């Protein structure tokens, strides 16, 4: 292979390398929990609060065949944690070191409702981190 073709092949390989998705820093780039700012909505603490999209799609708690409702955990620890401020919520160990902070659009009983954009943001952040399955959720009220 001529030297000019080798340089072209190397340049092409290097440029393709930069087009591939980065996978070196999953821990740093992914969120470890969720803080829901629901101040001003008169939230009442509940053993099993729900997080919903305006469309009615349930985001939390994650309950299905693989994740049955854990009554013991709900009674002993609560599915979600509660805090009086964002700062207090950041200190909760269950949320890890990098929680996503979002605002509830409204509250209906023990259901905290997100607008569709926020719901999509939460689901995208949770896709790889699975913080909703781990009940790494705090509600600021």
Can you give a write-up of this model?
The protein has five helices and eight strands, in the order ααβββαβαβββαβ. It has 141 residues and is of the alpha/beta class. It has one domain (26-140). Strands 4-8-1-5 form a four-stranded parallel beta sheet. Strands 3-2-7-6 form a four-stranded mixed beta sheet. The longest helix is centred in the N-terminal third of the chain and has 17 residues, at 3-19. The protein is globular. Residues 3-28 have low confidence and may be disordered.
Low-confidence stretches: 3-28
Largest sheet: 4 strands, parallel
* Structural domain tally: 1
Please work out how many helical segments DSSP would assign: 5
Shape: globular
Our estimate of the beta-strand percent is 15-25%
| Average pLDDT figure | 84
Order of helices and strands: HHEEEHEHEEEHE
Q: Looking across the biggest beta sheet, what order are the strands in?
A: 4-8-1-5
By secondary-structure content and strand pairing, the structural class works out as alpha/beta
Compute the number of strand runs: 8
Please estimate the helix content.
25-40%
Radius of gyration: 21 Å
Notable traits:
single chain; 141 residues; alpha/beta; 4-stranded parallel beta sheet; 4-stranded mixed beta sheet; 5 helices; 22% strand; disordered N terminus
